[in-house]
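Supplementary Note 2. Why include the ligand at all?

Several targets in our set were suspected to adopt different conformations when bound, so apo predictions alone were not considered sufficient. For every target with a known small-molecule partner we therefore ran a joint prediction. The input for zinc ion is given below.
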Amino acid sequence: MFERLENRYFFRGELVLENEMHIGSGKGDGTTDALVVKDFSDKPIIPGSSLRGILRSTIERIASSLGKNPCMLTSINCVTNSRVLQDEFKKLLEEKDSSKIMAFLNNNSKICPVCRLFGSTVVASKIRVTDLLLRNERSNTSIRHGVGINRDTETSQDKAKFDFEVVPRGSRFSLELIGENLTNDDLALLAVGIQEMSNGNFWIGGNTARGLGKCRLEKLEIKYFSDADRLKKYLRDGEKGLDSLPLNEFYACINTLV
Ligand SMILES: [Zn+2]
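The joint prediction is reproduced in token form.
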């Protein structure tokens, strides 16, 4: 699009389930009401969009405690929620003046830090997450029996019984997250979310209130290029041409959040 490729960061690791997980496919079969989402080889997966959404809300919640007010949780003006700013942005896009567009996208009073990183219906996201494939050779999913609670009387109702499939604890999924044109602020916010994932303060899928879907990021590695020379090296040599970002340096970004 209009943006030049300034840098690209590859975050790779393994997401390990510390409890059973249910991400519904929206389908059932003759015996189970809710099956988990699976790939073509019938192995459970974690859709990249699910992980991205939880990462976003994790960052959103913490960002607002660190003075980086996201528009979702505060009433600040952001191109995502302001008609006036949307019209202004649309005009800039029509003019195709990339320096003005960049200035708009880097202006804190035009776009909130979380929309700048994760995008919205109006602006593109800087973050992509590939669907997370199961690393284990096979997965022995099992069926859990849930009982619906009547919210009015708080009694369990026989009629509300339902069965759902879960992926077992200990399952490992490959995680790949790619960030492009990240600023220091973007990296700092991302470090907050990824740190939460590494600390195991991360829940994915359904029934998380009951502890389901607790997971932890392990074996994280960060590789990147951040200038034209390094980009050429990457294009020429592939993965070998990338620089490594040590984890302590990455997490140190958090201190720069003001
Ligand atoms: Zn926003």
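The mean pLDDT is 89. The helical segments are 48-65, 83-95, 98-105, 113-118, 184-198, 228-237, 247-252. Comparable summaries for the other entries are listed in the accompanying table.
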